[in-house]
Specification:
12% helix, single chain, mainly beta, 10 strands, 40% strand
Length: 188
């Protein structure tokens, strides 16, 4: 956290902003919680004001994946097919917490949440629509089983030419008499 950000957080008047980077099939979208356009980090962030919302970003004392919900409401429902056509599961999302000082964005907003977009929920009220996107923390990957094996083929995926696992298959059925001298011939 930069010194300027720490000073802003500790001051009696805080002017916070939330920046959200969403990734869709055609590329990233940059939005923020205020009005107008803000240039930060080499991108133009489009203000959605009161139309956008972010649920509480929670942390705990244990290592567990806690998600967040992003909401965009009040947009024209005829645009819904275009929005849903751009959506794909598990694309990256990053939420930043920033602050302003005298109308100027303080350098280095803090990455508050990093994860992936999950299934969206859509609600249509007449001519306007609301879309809510559940986002899963990057820690959700800890719950997924890895599809890796202790085989030569698996080793070759990451390290072509490495012979470290080339003998695994030949020792599967070998019988070793530990501590005894035998005349067993090896398959190696």
């Amino acid at each position: 956290m930069s010194t300027a950000m720490l000073t802003a957080i500790q001051s009696s008047a805080l002017y916070p902003a939330v920046f959200v980077q969403l990734t869709f099939q055609s590329g990233p979208v940059y939005i923020w919680s205020g009005l107008g356009t803000v240039n930060w980090n080499g991108q133009n962030w489009i203000g959605v004001g009161a139309l956008g919302g972010v649920s509480a970003i929670e942390e705990g004392s244990s290592v567990e994946a806690k998600g967040v919900t992003l909401t965009l409401s009040g947009f024209d429902s005829t645009l819904l097919p275009d929005v849903m056509g751009e959506f794909a599961l598990l694309l990256p999302v990053t939420i930043y917490f920033g602050a302003f000082n005298s109308g100027v964005l303080i350098d280095n907003p803090i990455a508050s949440f990093v994860g992936q977009m999950d299934q969206p929920m859509v609600e249509i009220n007449g001519e306007t629509a609301t879309i809510s996107i559940n986002c899963e923390s990057a820690l959700i990957a800890l719950n997924e089983a890895t599809d890796r094996r202790y085989t030569n083929d698996d080793q070759q995926r990451d390290w072509p030419g490495d012979l470290g696992m080339s003998y695994v298959m030949s020792i599967q059925e070998i019988s070793l008499q530990w501590g005894q001298q035998t005349n067993v011939t090896s398959n190696i």
